[in-house]
Amino acid sequence: xxxxxxxxxxxxxxxxxxxxxxxxxxxxxxxxxxxxxxxxxxxxxxxxxxxxxxxxxxxxxxxxxxxxxxxxxxxxxxxxxxxxxxxxxxxxxxxxxxxxxxxxxxxxxxxxxxxxxxxxxxxxxxxxxxxxxxxxxxxxxxxxxxxxxxxxxxxxxxxxxxxxxxxxxxxxxxxxxxxxxxxxxxxxxxxxxxxxxxxxxxxxxxxxxxxxxxxxxxxxxxxxxxxxxxxxxxxxxxxxxxxxxxxxxxxxxxxxxxxxxxxxxxxxxxxxxxxxxxxxxxxxxxxxxxxxxxxxxxxxxxxxxxxxxxxxxxxxxxxxxxxxxxxxxxxxxxxxxxxxxxxxxxxxxxxxxxxxxxxxxxxxxxxxxxxxxxxxxxxxxxxxxxxxxxxxxxxxxxxxxxxxxxxxxxxxx
Length: 413
Description:
The protein is mostly helical. It contains 18 helices and no strands.
């Protein structure tokens, strides 16, 4: 009886979110910041309920996850969110604007802001503050979604992109199942992954591309555990040219064998460089007046700019350093994060031989110690990595904490 009640609440929660999204007058102009207050309060209440339900599923050991109805419920929720227009973020529309420009023009999306793409018909449908910035993701991501720019309707392109997310989500589930067997983890983890509200909302409702990263990292960890480091490096390198932040994981491959640190380092650099160069070729063939530094322009804007403040909402540490050190804050944070990062390399890779823990803590440190551009869905990577560490109870609670943060963060928490 309790199981039926929990499942009903799960489905009802996502149904309410879907109704709110469909009830809006515009699907492309609104996000959480400018929704009516009553809708914001309803979404906040639903998110709180989902966090409570997820907490219950995670900590209560009597839930039967093997029931067929559990799988049916997961599929129903995913289908509902896929057909629902994005509600909390308009980032997916920026993906499509870039795809349209790549598919129909030879304008360099890394050298021009979205506002500069005046010939792009979809640009007129979006009003977001980041319109003044160039493309923010790696070249491989844009190469993947370029065919969607051939579609005539923006919302149709968005739905097609969500199908890409579904495909990578299936890959992530497949790789997670293999990792559960390989690492002798509890099979319950797979179902917690299926019902994690942060994953469901950010991947299927708003269509963020982090699930592509998660899928590649899961496969990379699988091959790393199987001692096939070359495949693991390639997969991690592919994640880098989709979203730059995963570059911090490369030391994992350098320290796979403490006796071959130098040769491992050279191999890692060569493989990563080759993957990056190959990913750039299709875009460079179309760009007018390409510049070799263009693909990292967004990286420079968001992370290295000495005057970068809190570009969205950031951690208390970021806010504190901004207040104390003003224009020097980013350099102070760089020094602090670098020190913490080197310690994590020493402790988790050199001393403890725990690459997954290194990946988890280095990403958490990067988000909360250094990044002035922290958005709710950025927590998806450490959240999903924590599933692989559930043998230690503290990572179960960290998973719940990160899940809660990534949803409550919308409400300035």
